[in-house]
Amino acid sequence: MRERQKTLLVYIFGFMIGFLPLYLLWSIGGWLYASRGETFASIDLPVMIDDLDSLVVLPEELPPSLVGATLAAEDADFFYHPGIDVYGIARAVIRNLRFLSFKEGGSTITQQLARNVYLSQTKTLIRKLLEVGVALQLERFYDKYEILAAYLSAVYMGRTGIGMKKAAKIYTGKQLKDLDWSETVGLAGIIRSPGLYEPDGARFLKRANVIKELLLEKGLHNEEVEPKELKARSAKQEYIPEWLKGYIVAEAKEKLGIPRESSIGGKGYLIFSTIDPELQKAVNDITNSTPFPHPATLMAHRYTGDVLAVGGGEYDVLHSRRQMGSAIKPFYYFLGFLEGVFTPYTLVADIPIKIGEWEPSNFEGFFRGPVTVEDALRLSLNVPSVRIFLEVGPSNFMNFMKEEVRLEGFYPQDLTVALGTVETTPWDALEAYTFLVNGGFKAELNLVKIIRDRFGNVIYVHSPNYSTIRRNYNTAVSLASQRLRKIMREVVKRGTGYRASIPGLDVGGKTGTAQRDAWFFGWMGNIIGVVSLHWDEGESIPGGRTCAPLWRKALQNVHHRYKVYSVLTRKRDTRQISLKLMKNSVKSFKSYLPSLTLKNLLPPTPSSLLLAVRNMDPFERKRYLKEINLIDPELAAHIWNELKLLSGETSP
């Protein structure tokens, strides 16, 4: 009798705390739901290289075995409740009040989906109430199978990341629709605590057997199931060299403030690298098959600095200082454009020159007479380049490299610097080249994208780190950068780097050859990369002949994954820029242009965008410049430079 009274009190208490504020929670949940849009589109994608199709589970892909095992593990009454379990919530509240802490959650699958997609993992009363409201709204707009499919798309599965589909592929080698009961009881068991129940742990089979018993107890399956041991069939990390894994872990420690000598393996951290497995495999193939010595290959996203692929040994990539050869030339050409010393069409003498005991010569051994600055860099002519270097000023150039570009390395105190006796590592050199290609924005290279703890909580998200030009020059940075990039495209089209050309695609770059080193730096769409070789004995083969073909071979089959434009069709469409920029913020953008109508603003001119950005407060200005930069970096650089000239500001 006493037990029945206790149960009745629980129901009354649940009614009082659940029904009275239910409408309010339902309304708040509706607002939160509307602010995030479609559930499937809102699922967090933790790894940049994953596409949506590889993560999202569709309702028609759910096999009965996975439905039954998931319900047994997480929510046996899923098909019978309205998104929340009032009795369960009341029971959890009583237990939590008793222990004065969150000992029990009382969450349904719908509530867990609401938490994973719309809210945070923080255990607070406010979050719990919001979770209830969002869950009620999800039940309003989706049927049960859609909610279950979305839940399995967004659920955290430990080392395989987000999503049951990916976990099934890695642990069983099967598609979801092909899973049997012996496999699903194990996969469903991981959901509760991936750090405890992952397949290589002792608790995995014990948990799977619990799910097996729950299937029978809850009437979700009528036959005995024998759980199957699961093992990772494939993993993207297989293409990552062991030394690089260690370097990624070291970088993650730095991000988390953990001493390098400390271990993080037992803490359950999950580190998502920026590495692109497809590009990494291509880089591995060319690095392992090349007959040339000491190869070092790096590919990165030119705007964010995310490292996409690394080829070669740790010493060659990170520590081996190599002479840059002619790869140093674009830096002082860029400085000359900034200073207004010359233009691409300025004539310079390609005739013998002697400076003290030093008598530089061209690689081919002959002279051409007067040549343009553009041809001097396109053909990598040494003598005209030395003359240009002298005109820019050796001390001016050294200050530029150390203070603006900030290229780490060894700088000889003589004029041979003009022909590339500067020594630096491939890693530092590629960072410096982002400065050139991005128009004065240097992106710091990084390997760690996201770090999650053992419960799936995101505890670190990388934000790109930039350094920029701090001085004012005679020429707009955007114009100087545009001139340099145009010449570097010609280097690949009909210059020393022609072997890196990929027909129909927008590619630019620069070769470099020193006594024992060879280089090719290039960009293609959003990718920037370097291939470097080093000879311990004898003279090196020119970078255009050795490194440029390797660079092309690594990228020619993966360009579809990035924004790579055709050289024939790429245009700056200011109308599309404006449409993208103002898609979700037309009113706020128009408020800065009171004299212009939306009709007049489309299509905009750079001057009208400059006017709008200039009238913004500093916070809004930075935000819009970032948006413009994502769409058209050249236009963003132009607006930034013009703002500095107009207002004398150092940072818009």
Account of the protein in words:
The protein is of the alpha+beta class. The chain has 28 helices and 14 strands. The strands form five sheets. Strands 3-2-14-13-12 form a five-stranded antiparallel sheet, sandwiched between helices. The chain has a three-stranded antiparallel sheet with strand order 1-9-10, with helices on one face. α4 runs parallel beside α10 (181-190), α6 crosses α8 and α27 (618-631) runs antiparallel to α28. It is elongated. The model is unreliable at 35-53, 567-604 and 648-652 (pLDDT under 50).
In short:
The chain has 652 residues and is an alpha+beta fold. It is 48% helix and 10% strand. The N and C termini lie far apart (74 Å).
Query: Largest sheet, described in full?
Result: 5 strands, antiparallel
Read across the widest sheet, the strand sequence of neighbours is: 3-2-14-13-12
Looking at the structure, what is the overall shape? Answer: elongated
Please provide the count of β strands. Answer: 14
Structural class, please?
alpha+beta
**Terminal Cα span:** 74 Å
Helicity range of the residues?
A: 40-55%
Please report the number of helical segments. 28
Oligomer: single chain
Low-confidence stretches: 35-53, 567-604, 648-652
Round the mean pLDDT to the nearest integer and report it. Answer: 78
Strand content: 5-15%
Radius of gyration: 30 Å
